[in-house]
């Protein structure tokens, strides 16, 4: 989360300087700078994700050195999941904090002809971003470990595309639907990257059903008979 905050700080500084050095009365230029700032923010986030991967690799080597069996107690996949989830949570907090502040009032959403679905759509977009950052973390770390640079490119490209789709708002159907399609596809990709398969899902469900039947049988045996 700290690494994401640093990337946001740097992107904000770049955008702030760009705005003050440009013509503020040129609306088209300011909109272009806003798009530029969003793209720079995405690139910095991915750069800091890579920096965090390198830091964790060094820490992993240190943990393996001092462990008794010569192996790190934390796997790379666990670190990738935690890193992505942290990026997602802090990104979601910053995405929704101002929206929640505005929801206090005064006024009613849509009273001036705006969309009445602003808050619910923002909530769904925030949820998608949290999930996407988690999935991107898993894919990104695996790509860095196996040196699959095309995977890194796809992660950055999908992140840029997701950020760019938000500029279609308030046409929420044009942004929300593609973003959730990207989320679903990225989630399946991360699932396969983490070693998941349809066979493992069926095996997990069958084990759960067996455990539930054993619990029910045990509970039945513990019930005392009544006269």
TrEMBL record:
Signal sequence range = 1-19
- One GO biological process from the UniProt record? protein processing
Where does the UniProt annotation locate this protein?
Answer: Membrane
Transmembrane regions listed in the UniProt entry: 31-48, 79-97, 117-141, 148-168, 174-192
Classification via InterPro entries: Aph-1
Sorted alphabetically, the Gene Ontology cellular component annotations on this record are: gamma-secretase complex
Q: How does the entry describe its membrane topology?
A: Multi-pass membrane protein
Statement: the UniProt record of this protein carries the keyword Nucleotide-binding: no
Record has Signal as a keyword: yes
- Pfam families documented for this protein: Aph-1 (PF06105)
**According to its UniProt entry, what is the function of this protein?**
Potential subunit of the gamma-secretase complex, an endoprotease complex that catalyzes the intramembrane cleavage of integral proteins such as Notch receptors.
- Subunit structure as annotated in this protein's UniProt entry: Component of the gamma-secretase complex.
The family annotation for this protein states: Belongs to the APH-1 family.
For this protein, the record's PANTHER family field holds: GAMMA-SECRETASE SUBUNIT APH-1
In its UniProt entry, what is this protein called? Gamma-secretase subunit APH-1
- Report the source organism: Alca torda (Razorbill)
């Amino acid at each position: 989360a700290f690494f994401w905050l640093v990337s946001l700080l740097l992107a904000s500084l770049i955008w702030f300087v760009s705005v003050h050095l440009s013509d503020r009365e040129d609306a088209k230029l300011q909109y272009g700078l806003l798009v530029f700032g969003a793209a720079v923010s995405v690139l910095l986030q991915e750069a800091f994700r890579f920096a965090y991967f390198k830091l964790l690799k060094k820490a992993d080597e240190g943990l393996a050195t001092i462990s008794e069996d010569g192996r790190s107690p934390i796997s790379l996949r666990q670190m990738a999941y935690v890193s992505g989830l942290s990026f997602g949570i802090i990104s979601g907090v910053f995405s929704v904090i101002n929206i929640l502040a505005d929801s206090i009032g005064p006024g009613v959403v849509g009273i001036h002809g705006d969309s009445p679905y602003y808050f619910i759509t923002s909530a769904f977009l925030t949820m998608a971003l949290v999930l996407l950052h988690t999935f991107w973390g898993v894919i990104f770390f695996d790509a860095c470990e196996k040196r699959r640079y095309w995977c890194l490119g796809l992660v950055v490209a999908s992140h840029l595309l997701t950020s760019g789709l938000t500029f279609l708002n308030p046409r929420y159907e044009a942004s929300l639907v593609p973003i959730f399609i990207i989320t679903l596809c990225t989630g399946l990709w991360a699932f396969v990257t983490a070693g998941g398969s349809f066979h493992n899902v069926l095996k997990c469900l069958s084990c759960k059903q067996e455990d539930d039947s054993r619990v029910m049988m045990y509970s039945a045996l513990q019930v005392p008979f009544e006269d």
